[in-house]
UniProtKB/TrEMBL annotation:
It comes from Lottia gigantea. It comes from the Eukaryota. This is F5/8 type C domain-containing protein. InterPro entries: FA58C, Galactose-bd-like_sf, IFT25. One of its GO terms (biological process) is intraciliary transport. GO terms for cellular component: centrosome; cilium; intraciliary transport particle B. Pfam families: F5_F8_type_C. Residues 16-124 form the F5/8 type C domain. PANTHER family: INTRAFLAGELLAR TRANSPORT PROTEIN 25 HOMOLOG. SUPFAM superfamilies: Galactose-binding domain-like.
């Protein structure tokens, strides 16, 4: 099992609802702890990670800031038909980063969509998303 969401593993951000030249969405998958994606201040916000092939997702970990409600969705092809696999309300962490973990059996996916439905402030940030799993053979 390894991190399927790293850009060096071939993962790509194929959609993000906001982008800033200083804090682009690709920062979430660059493997660095100090970089991040910043949202533009309206909700909902979302991003989609495309994996290099069909994968089995075992767990997802998100390091973020100011997120209140989040939804994780997957699909196994290039359609827009996503299936919700988790919804959660995060606790406010004041000035500390939020680290949230999600565990699954084996969830098959080609794409992972993360929908930030609301936040504790106008802006939120995602520092890192880790997707542990294996390629489907």
């Amino acid at each position: 099992m390894f991190d399927l969401a790293l850009s060096e593993a071939g993962a790509q951000i194929i959609l993000a609802t906001s982008s800033d030249d200083k804090y682009p969405p690709e920062h979430m998958i660059d493997g660095k702890d100090e970089t991040f994606w910043a949202t533009c201040g309206l909700y909902p916000q979302e991003f989609v990670i495309r994996f290099t092939s069909l994968v089995n997702i075992n767990s997802v970990s998100i390091t973020c800031y100011n997120i209140r409600d989040i939804k994780l969705e997957v699909n196994s092809d290039d359609s827009q038909n996503f299936k919700t696999i988790e919804q959660k309300e995060f606790q406010s962490s004041d000035s500390a980063p939020q680290i949230e973990d999600f565990s699954f059996g084996n969830v098959k996916a080609q794409n992972l969509r993360v929908v930030i439905e609301s936040g504790y402030d106008h802006f939120c940030a995602v520092y890192k998303i880790t997707v542990n799993g294996t390629a489907v053979h």
